[in-house]
Design a protein that fits this description.
- This protein is an alpha/beta fold.
- It has a single domain, classed as Aldolase class I (TIM Barrel, Alpha-Beta Barrel), CATH 3.20.20.70.
- The chain contains 10 helices and 8 strands.
- It has an 8-stranded parallel β-barrel, surrounded by 7 helices.
């Protein structure tokens, strides 16, 4: 859709969590990531209040204009002027979300092929698939591995892989045919965020 504020889906996604949302230097880290290239910044925090989620989203939007994605909270996405939303399995369907904005990139977080096929058939633009590797964010979830990712790619939608992705394994992940990767700690906790972006982008471009 050529009229979208963000014409192409970024290959690198920097996703927050509750810990990151409360970092005292979050604004500085966000500005560093936002200035490093075409990185999507995701405002995510399952236990955040609506007000805290909105504050987080606005901070990220200021750091990366036209590259804000909001996870789950579509009201926050509208209020903060997001260019994309990330839907969980228990939330609205992509088709329902599309009624709120025809300009959004709409992604669906999926863990099984059945969920992925349903999201594709329901109008999602892309799939966020994981975890690829063991991760403390979802310690109970069995990792898919690189081979498992390829089965999701075969469904035909762009796939963004998440879960334990680092510079060291990003090239292997990309070899599965994914569009891009989503990263939490390897970007937000990096001593030099710009350098971390450059290093990961070299592996996935």
């Amino acid at each position: 859709m050529s009229s979208r504020p963000l014409a192409t889906l970024p290959r690198l996604h920097a996703v927050t969590d509750e810990r990151i949302a409360h970092l005292p230097d979050l604004a500085d880290r966000a500005r560093a990531l936002g200035s490093a290239g075409s990185v999507a910044l995701h405002a995510r925090g399952h236990s955040l209040t609506g007000r805290a989620h909105l504050e987080l989203a606005r901070l990220l939007a200021e750091a990366a204009p036209n590259r804000l994605f909001v996870n789950d909270r579509l009201d926050v996405a509208l209020a903060a002027g997001a260019v994309g939303v990330q839907l969980s399995a228990g939330g609205l369907s992509p088709r329902d979300a599309r009624r709120l904005s025809v300009y959004w990139w709409i992604g669906a977080s999926v863990h099984t092929l059945e969920e992925a096929a349903a999201a594709r058939d329901g109008g999602a633009d892309y799939l966020l698939v994981g975890p690829v590797f063991p991760t403390p964010t979802h310690p109970e979830a069995p990792p898919l591995g690189v081979r498992g990712l390829a089965r999701f790619v075969a469904l035909g939608l762009p796939v963004v892989a998440i879960g334990g992705v680092t510079r060291a394994n990003a090239r292997d992940v990309r070899s599965a045919g994914v569009h891009g990767v989503a990263v939490i700690r390897a970007l937000w906790d990096a001593p030099d965020a710009r350098q971390a972006v450059r290093e990961i982008m070299k592996e996935i471009e």
